[in-house]
Amino acid sequence: MKEYTNFDAVGLASLVQTGQVEANELVEASIARAEEVNPGLNAIVKERYDRARKEAKERRFQNEAFAGVPLLLKNLSHTIQGEPITAGSALLSHRIAQRDSHFVSRLKRAGFMMTGFTNTPEFGLKNITEPKVYGPSRNPWGEAFSPGGSSGGAAAAVAARIVPIAAASDGGGSIRIPASFTNLVGLKPTRGRIPVGPGVGRQWQGAAIDFVLSRSMRDSARVLDELQVYQKEAAFHTPIYEGSFEKQMAKAEKRNLRIAWNDRSPVGTPVSEAAKQAVRQVVRWLEAEGHYIEECGPDIEGTTLMEQYYTMNAGEMAALLSSIERDLGRSVTREDVEVETWLLRHLGDRLSAASYASSLSAWDQAKARMVRFQDTFDLYITPTTAFSAPRVGELTPTHNEVERLYESVEKSTEQLFEAVYEMFLPSLTYSPFTQLANMTGLPAISLPVYKTFEGMPLGVQVMTQAGQEHRLLQLGWQLEQSPLWEGG
């Protein structure tokens, strides 16, 4: 199918629904595109092409929303029964999924054809995708650059038009950061909107959520319609949105919005002029559309909040590796995992239950402050990332840096915590704006509205109140019709 790369997912589904193409033709087109471009990108780390071919030929569609559309899953938690899922770690090379995740089950029900799994950093811990076990993913906008992370393989696959949509997840910006770096739409829904489990209910204490990366607003809106759920057993719930996100998206707000914007890093790190310009051009456009605009931000101390985020990371990693040790019947050594995993595990082993509880309390306080801020403002706009994509290897610690990090394990807990913060600081400098939405559970979206002088993409992030994703989709749809839009 020569025109395959010209269509978004909604467009491809329409071709199947109207009998113009068969699902197996779309699967073959996606495989052909992958074989053409994936050797240079390393976006896909596990193929399931033969299974996808068989499933596409055997399935009888009944007007499913995404009938026959090829899709890639993320090699982190998007499990298919009987298939490997390694989370980007050699430590889990033996791991075979015992069942489909609820998220994958919903994607299947929507009509998607799963053609493989995409690259991710070890345990999804970084905003770049350069796991030792698979090697780095590369950015279709320049193969010397990273597509971001942790959904970097997914972003590279969509940007290279291997698939129109790829499954992704976001625990600190892992959908929005790659979207910014690769010119895609990256929505992080409200906490509790998307199915979780089985077996996992909190997903990084509510910070992480599954969704997709796409090239069009209507694709993201329709996926949200298909995936939103009220799941009784889940730890967090968001009321079902009555109506259709896709249909509501094209309807203009009946009133002018109150919009806050800020282009200063919440942790005091530098922000590029390009990222500032990206925000300001959107702000000027919104002001011309009649909306009330004010430069301000919530009263939240970003550095302290990030320390509480790393406390969660450490606790989660300690619990995960302890569970893996029980399964393996042996201790995990530093040779088994990457340095970031090793340090977080040791920090998590040392932190007290009191410090962990205090960190989650800080998350709740940040949520309360955001709610008060949102009593005044409908939308909050920032850069998605402070810079365009880093070069591959730029954020990977050198051999000497790694050795110094290993030495910090022998030091005091306070010194180890400082080492963890410093270890992630180069990455945080690139993406200081995204974690707030994860810690508060609020919806946020990265929109492809800017390119740097060198031609590299940069996204703008928009946040809104819990359960109000339709506002993000409406704004994105309006920008999609405007001269500012760079995606597509």
Describe the protein in words:
41% of the residues lie in helices and 12% in strands. With 488 residues, it is an alpha/beta fold. The chain has a domain of 296 residues: Amidase signature (AS) domain (Amidase signature (AS) enzymes), CATH 3.90.1300.10. An eleven-stranded mixed β-sheet has the order 1-3-2-4-6-5-10-11-9-7-8, with helices on both faces. The radius of gyration is 21 Å and the shape is globular. The two termini are 19 Å apart. The model has no long low-confidence stretch (mean pLDDT 98).
Level of helix content? 40-55%
Low-pLDDT stretches are none
- Rg to the nearest angstrom? 21 Å
Q: Major sheet: size, sense and barrel closure?
A: 11 strands, mixed
CATH homology superfamily name of one domain = Amidase signature (AS) domain
The succession of helices and strands, N to C, reads HHEHEHEHEHEEHHEHEHHHEHHHEEH
Q: What is the CATH level 1 assignment of one domain?
A: Alpha Beta
Shape: globular
Number of helices: 16
Instruction: Indicate the CATH architecture of one domain.
Output: Alpha-Beta Complex
> Would you tell me the overall average pLDDT?
98
Structural class, judged by helices and strands? alpha/beta
Secondary structure: number of strands:
11
Strand content: 5-15%
CA-CA gap between termini: 19 Å
What is the CATH T-level topology of one domain? Amidase signature (AS) enzymes
The main sheet orders its strands as: 1-3-2-4-6-5-10-11-9-7-8
